[in-house]
Structure formats: structure tokens, C-alpha cells
Amino acid sequence: MKLNPFILTLSALSSVEAFSPSTLNKRYPLRNAVFAKGRSSCDLVLYAKVGIFFGTSTGNTETVADYIAAEFGDDAEGPIEIDGIVGSVADEFAKYDALIVGTPTWNTGADSERSGTGWDEIYYGEMQDLNIAGKKVGVFGLGDQISYSENYADASGELHDVFEKLGCQMIGYTSQEGYEHENSKAIRGDLFCGLLCDEINQDDLSEERVQNWVKQLKTEGILDGSSESSASPTPTAVIDAEVVATPPAEVIVEDDVISKLEAENAMLRKLLDESKAMDKVLANDVMNGESGYKPYYNPKSLSTMWVSSDGKKCYYTKESRIP
């Protein structure tokens, strides 16, 4: 089935209670709406704005991913475990205007592939072929800041760098205040490169940290959309297009257009008045035999052809219906 893009007019859905314009505008970007043509009808396919992806080994990263998904509600889809989409990452990422990606840290002594999850399999292979420049990306990571104080959540830094090198717009940097780490490869400047949580030593702070971070992401425009990915997305929600009414055509006339039309109309009236005056003069000359032109009136076209006495010259005058 081939997908053909169309512009979606929200007013067309105003009569459909389940898909009101305000709801659609909030949850789904217009440019991600397409019509899928079938044999007997067509379906309206919509794509969610934010996709949440994570890798995990013990389940702690998934727990935080669930917190994030709950905070976004209908504005996001997921969380989706990265191990389950290896081999189809391009198609999955293309569904969303923005991404939230998370990872734990295991291989603390390694220079790369430090997550111990499916991220390590795709960082320098499958992901290098992605065309996701401009997509907004927020990173979150898990680590043990007491046992690994010198390498706290190191893998989050690698996750951040891979997306940044692909041209993504990185958002969601957070303060180091309130943590007990000594060092981390996830630090950029004076900030963490995303949200870092510690489910071992500070699990009671995770939900509050997530709430504050999601608010921050929204203020940084994660729901505004900026992706121009060229990959063809896969449908995530389908609505029967038969319920979509065709909106009436609207004609908007600007004030300056009206002013121009009025000016042109005034000029035409002036020309018409001058033409009528000239016609009277010419007609008078003809009647007095001074012009040598003879009139031939056409009642169908309301025009008069004036022919010279020698038949070599002529001109036309026409009655006007303008009041």
C-alpha cells in the first residue's frame, strides 16, 4: 500500500468528538498526517510526536522510562526497548519528531560501548546511516554514584555524543547539584548531558527528577517538532477517513486588496465618462456631416462601428452596463 501525503485541515475534523482539533493539534503534528489509499476507502494515518527508547539490564532504566512516559501522557509513545528494534532503528525513529533515549552504565572501564545493552550493537553500525539531523533528542541515564563515583553514568555521555554527531538538537541538560559523584563522562561543561538517576542510592528522588525534567523538555520545545527526516514512517494510529468531512472553501479578501479594487474601479469609471463624452462629440459631428464617419450599431454587442466615408478607417464605441 502506497502512502501519499496530503495537507490535513483540522476544521474538517471538528464534527468528530474523539478527534477534535484541539486534541489533534496537541498530540499529533500536521505534517505527519498522511492519507493511505485503499481499494474502497482511504485511512488517515497519524504519528505521535515523541518516542521514548531505552536499554536496560536490571530493569532500573525501564522504571525511569516508565516515569517519563507517564509524565508525557498522550504526547509520547513508549517506552520501547532498544534491543527489540535492532535492525529497524531507522523506521522506528522516523515515526517521531523528537526522541528521548536512555541507558544504564556497565562497562565503566571501556572507552566505548559502555551501556551493556542493545545500544552498543547499533552505535557505530546501524545508527551511522540514520538521517535524523535536526531531530530534538533528550538523554537520560542510570548509574551508581557511590560504588562508581568516578564513572557515574558514563554511558549516558556516549549516548549523547552519538546523537549529537548525527546532527540532532540535544536538549534537557541538568545540574549536578544533589549528587554525590566524583566524576562522570556524562558531564558537558558544568552540566550533565541529560537527566541522571540513581535507583540504587537515590531512588526516592527519581520521580521528582523526572517530573522536573519533563517540564524542562517542554519549555525547550520538545513538543514543537523540528525533524526533517527523509525516512518513510510507519503508521502508529489509523482513523477511517470516511468520517472526515470536506471543509467549505473560504475566500479571504484583505483590506489592501479591496482598496486596490476600489481605486481601479474609480479609474475605469473616469475613463468611461470620458469615452461617453467623446462619443457624444463624434455622434454630433456625424449628424452634422463634419466627421465623415457613418455609425453601424450592433444591439447584441451594444457596440457601434464608425466607418469613414472612404471606407478605409473605422473605430468602435461600446455602451457600458456599469451603473
UniProtKB/TrEMBL annotation:
Task: Kindly indicate where the leader peptide sits in this chain.
Answer: 1-18
Which InterPro entries does this UniProt record tie to the protein? Answer: Flavodoxin, Flavodoxin/NO_synth, Flavodoxin_CS, Flavodoxin_lc, Flavoprotein-like_sf
Q: Which residues form the Flavodoxin-like domain?
A: 50-218
Cofactor dependence is on:
FMN
| Keywords, ordered alphabetically | Electron transport, Flavoprotein, FMN, Signal, Transport
One matching Pfam family is Flavodoxin_1
Q: Which GO terms describe its molecular function?
A: electron transfer activity; FMN binding
Per the record, the similarity remark reads: Belongs to the flavodoxin family.
Name of the protein this chain belongs to: Flavodoxin-like domain-containing protein
